[in-house]
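Our consortium's second objective concerns turning raw sequence data into structural hypotheses that experimental partners can test. To show how far this objective has progressed, the report includes one record in full. It was chosen at random from the queue rather than selected for favorable results. The single chain below, 295 residues long, was entered without modification.
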Amino acid sequence: MPEPAFLFGQFVGGLTAAMFLFMIAAGLSLIFGVLRILNFAHGSFYMFGAYLAWQFMRWLGPGTEYFWLAAIGAATGVAMIGVAIERLLLCRLYRREELYQLLFTYGFVLILADIAKIVWGTQQLSVSRPPSLSGSFEILGTTVPHYNLFIILLGPSIALALWLLMHRTGVGRLIRAAVLDREMLGALGANVGGLYTIMFGVGSFLAGLGGALVTPVKSIVPGMDVEVIVEVFIIVVIGGLGSLWGTFLGAFVFGQVLAFGILIMPRFSIFSVFALMAIILIWRPWGLLGRPLSR
């Protein structure tokens, strides 16, 4: 039987991974909830956030004191890329069949992956942790880095901020109205296209922010987009497509199942996550907190 301190360390590690993935999955779920588009290129936005954070650090100087500026700059740059893609190309496919949208976004995965290799090469890159969060502390016999604690607290903060945006602002009310009946909202004079652009930009910003913040704990390599998009899709399917708190719950469950699954089946830990997803889909095809889609 593992020691309690070791189990708590696994829990903290799983929670940290869950909050990283929630930042990315929240953007994907938000885009689907409003636009009804499963954006395969969301993982590419995450990858570009990581590469842009590294690039900003090179531009700003050799030190790590500019890390936060680089992270915000990278996320903003990814949001601008997302807005450009949505306004110039993706908006033309809203009334097409889902297959066209999936093929289109998958095509962008291939294009953006090649662009990243051309610009930054194929070697591994990394970014150091910011000096303000370079230390650690001990709790219940487990050493917890300050940076991990920051990520653990950032995840619920983002969830709360998105909830306030959707339920306590005028823009949020319009967005929820667009989800229910976009044609009627457009007939009433609302700029539905502008709302779509805003939400696609917010979702892209979250993906870029997740990629920028993961750079101190994970190497930046080609292919990281494909790896994360699989995990993110599992999370939104478990929690429920389009459900913010479902995505948060799905990320938490994913992180803990993966962290403790390694203890039970070291060689097949990812199998436990897929098995859980299969069970949930059989029990609730629309996810833990999702709702059946109405046509």
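The partners drew two points from this record. The chain has one domain: 11-225. The mean pLDDT is 88. Both points have been shared with the crystallography group to help prioritize constructs.
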